[in-house]
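Hey forum,

I'm writing up a methods section and want to include a predicted complex as supplementary material. The small molecule is S-adenosylmethionine. I've pasted the protein sequence and the SMILES. Can someone with a working setup run it? I'll credit the forum in the acknowledgements.
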Amino acid sequence: MEWVREFYSVTGAWWARADARVTERDASRVEALRSHGGPGVRRVLELGAGYGATAVATARAGYAVTAVELSDRADHAAGLATGLGAGSLTFHKEDFYAVRLDGRFDAVTYWNGFGIGADADQRRLLHRIADHWLAPAGVALIDVFNPFVWAGWDGDEEHLLPDPEAGYDHELYERTRFDPVTCAATDTWRSAAEPGREVSQTLRCYTPADLALLLAGTGLELADVVVDGRSIGPPGAPAAPSTVTRELLHQHHEYLAVLRHAPA
Ligand SMILES: C[S@@+](CC[C@H](N)C(=O)[O-])C[C@H]1O[C@@H](n2cnc3c(N)ncnc32)[C@H](O)[C@@H]1O
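Reply by user p_vandermeer:
Happy to help. C-alpha cells for the complex are below, copy them as they are.
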C-alpha cells in the first residue's frame, strides 16, 4: 500500500483550493452520525480524514473529534479548524494501522475511503476498531464502495479542464478500470503538465453480503445498510424497497455501513 500516501498527497494538492473546505456534504455526514449514533455520542474517531473538513464540521457540532490522516491532505486541517465552540479536534498525521490513541470512542467513522489494500488489510482495520477503539455500545459508520456502480464505470476516460473560479487549477486525465475477479476498481490520474507521471488508487468494493462475510470474526457486525440516507437493514432483513435496491444497482458508488460490536 505504498501508493496511498503519494496518491492522496498528489491529488490532494491538485484539488485543495476547491475541496479543502466545509460543505453540505460534511453537514449530511454529521447528520448521519447524529441519527445512527444517538444522543450518547461524545467522542468521535474519524479515520482517513483527508483535508479535515468533516472532522471540523463534526467538532463544530459539539463533538470531541480525533482524526487520523496519512497524506499531506492533513496539512489543511489546522487552517479549517475555526469556530469549534464546545467541540474539539485533535488531528494526527499518521497511519491508522500504526497510530496509538487513548481511550475508546462512542463512534468511529471512515468516510469515503474503506477498501484500500487486500481483504486482510480491511480485517486488520476492523479488528483495530473492535478491539481498541470502539466503546461497547458504540457505532462505526463506514462508507463502502459499491461494486455494481464501479463495474459500470469500467473503461471510462475523462478529460477535465481547469476551472479556476471553482478552485480547480489543473488540466487532468482520469481512467477507470474494474477487475471483476478481485472486485476492485482502479482509478488512474495524470496531469497534462506532467504527462509521464500517473498516480492510481485501487479500491476493493464489497456488496453488503460480502461485507457481512468480511466482518465475520472481527468482533463487528453489520447492523444496517444506508443508501443515500435510507436504511434498508442488513442482508437478511425484510426485502428493501425496490426503488432503493435499483439505486444501489445503478446509481450510488458507495453506501454507508452501520457496524456495531457483535454479540460475544
Ligand atoms: C478518498 S479519501 C477520503 C478523505 C475524506 N474522508 C473525505 O471523504 O473527503 C481517503 C483518505 O484516507 C486516507 N488514508 C488511507 N489509508 C490511510 C491510512 N492507513 N492511515 C491514515 N489515512 C489513510 C487517504 O490518505 C485519504 O485522504
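Some notes you might quote in the supplement: The first strand starts at residue 43 and ends at 47. The mean pLDDT is 97.
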